Amino acid sequence: xxxxxxxGTNDRRPTGFADCVQCGEPTExxxxxxxxxxxxxxxxxxxxRTACSG
Length: 54
What we know:
Helix content: 10-25%
Shape: elongated
Distance between the termini: 53 Å
Strand order of the largest sheet: 1-2
Structural class: alpha+beta
Strand content: 5-15%
Radius of gyration: 17 Å
Number of strands: 2
Mean pLDDT: 79
Number of helices: 1
């Protein structure tokens, strides 16, 4: 078994989490993620607003 991938030298862990652009709560996304980030609650509410009602 090749353990080269598990030696810890290539870890790319985020330094922090981004804040939600709507409510300011921490999200599950890294701070360096491009684009607007939403927390799970705001993402769910946004999906409800944009969902097809028909």
